[in-house]
Design brief:
411 residues, alpha/beta, TIM Barrel, Arc Repressor Mutant, subunit A, 2 domains, 14 strands, 19% strand
């Protein structure tokens, strides 16, 4: 089954440069000398220019019309204006960018010079995501952020004056030293800013961040002992849903909230399994095979990721990690990506795409999870409950296990 809009492409460009590394960050980003910025942009331009040939070699469709562009990282606003201009010239030189395309750039408050802001606006950037994380200065400083609340407010005013009013603010529930009172303060500030979109993340503890490693090792350098309990973080998340909704910023995905007409078109592409091309360090792509899998089977999907080693990327000394997803694996993704959305999964649509056999087992699993209070079954629509969103990883694993159980081991 073809998803509407499959003839359009989303572009993600990874810009891995930071002025400082946040304690909670587990992304492939870091503090690198400005001298490497130009070399990196040249590599991005090479990859953009060679994207069609690469797609042909990998036997995947690459739509030439782009309706969403996202520069993430890292802090893309650290690029000099001339590099931003060159990058967008290369994008438009290799792809047909729709006039109404959503073009997002991630920025760190206090790290957006006037000439960079002017360059972004001239390049057609119409959406900015601000990595605020906390409006409480002490919390922001402890997590490695370099801004204050006043700097955030000032940058929001500057962005609006430059004609960029489609703004997102990121917050993290669970930062070291955070309390219910300070979290409420951050939410009040976010609402008071009047931004139309917010992303709220619960702190993830893993070995890929300095804070995560310290929590696992019971260290003290990054104040791991001040991280709130899991129960407190869950309560903060629930408070965010309630307060943002009351302010007209409705939740539409596990971590994302928006006023009407301001949902992130680029991120919705990920959750609805529409094609996107990732370019740059540790960037991922999802593209469909050129050849159909059969008369009644969905086309195979290729998921590919570039290296997370900057030197290897700059030197072109790496292989793209890739995996072809068959119908069963795509069916899994349809469930755990679709369940991220408050609108839920359309089971009838999944059955039309993947057939009754795969969808039938998932229907039964959905009924079981509904009895446990994790899902709701509303006719053909299955969304997570409020409790299910808090335990979403456990729900997703149930559908992954369902596919694993269907594989018969070879004796």
């Amino acid at each position: 089954m073809r998803v509407p809009g499959d003839n359009l492409l989303g572009l993600y460009l990874s810009i891995p440069f930071c002025r400082s590394k946040c304690t909670y960050c587990n992304f492939a980003s870091g503090v690198y000398p400005p001298s490497e910025h130009s070399q990196y942009v040249e590599r991005l331009i090479e990859d953009l220019s060679g994207a069609s040939e690469q797609a042909e070699r990998m036997r995947v469709e690459l739509p030439c019309t782009v309706d969403t562009i996202y520069l993430g990282g890292g802090t893309p606003s650290l690029l000099e204006p001339d590099l931003i201009e060159r990058l967008f010239r290369a994008i438009r030189g290799n792809f047909d960018v729709r006039p109404d395309a959503e073009i997002t750039v991630e920025c760190a408050p206090g790290q957006l010079p006037e000439d960079t802001l002017a360059g972004m606006a001239a390049a057609g950037v119409n959406r900015v995501s601000l990595g605020v994380q906390s409006f409480v200065d002490r919390e922001a400083a402890m997590s490695g952020r370099l801004h204050t609340r006043e700097i955030v407010w000032r940058d929001i005013r500057r962005l609006r004056a430059a004609g960029i009013s489609n703004l997102n603010v990121d917050l993290i529930a669970g930062l070291a030293g955070q309390t219910m009172a300070s979290w409420a303060e951050s939410l009040d500030c976010l609402i008071g800013c009047g931004v139309p979109h917010a992303s709220v993340y619960m702190l993830e503890v893993d070995a890929d961040s300095r804070l995560g490693r310290e929590i696992l090792a019971r260290g003290t350098r990054y104040r791991a002992g001040l991280v709130p309990s899991d129960e407190a973080i869950a309560a903060m998340y629930s408070m965010a849903i309630e307060r943002l909704s009351a302010a007209g910023i409705e939740q539409y995905e596990i971590s994302n909230f928006a006023r009407p007409e301001y949902r992130s078109k680029h991120n919705l592409r990920y959750w609805s399994r529409r094609p996107y091309l990732g370019v740059g360090l540790d960037a991922s792509s999802m593209l469909r095979a050129l050849e159909p899998a059969g008369d009644h089977a969905p086309a195979a999907v290729l998921r590919a990721t570039t290296t997370d080693d900057l030197n290897a990327y700059l030197g072109g000394r790496f292989e793209i990690e890739s995996e072809w997803l068959d119908a069963a694996q795509q069916h899994e993704e349809a469930w755990f990506l679709g369940l991220r959305l408050n609108s839920g999964v359309d089971v009838a649509a999944i059955e039309r795409e993947f057939g009754a056999e795969l969808a039938g087992a998932a229907r039964e699993k959905a009924k079981e999870l509904a009895e446990r209070g994790l899902l709701m079954v509303e006719g053909e629509i299955v969304p997570l409950t409020a409790r299910g969103r808090l335990l979403s990883n456990e729900v997703f694993q149930e559908f992954l296990d369902l596919n694993a159980e269907s594989v018969t081991p070879i004796a």
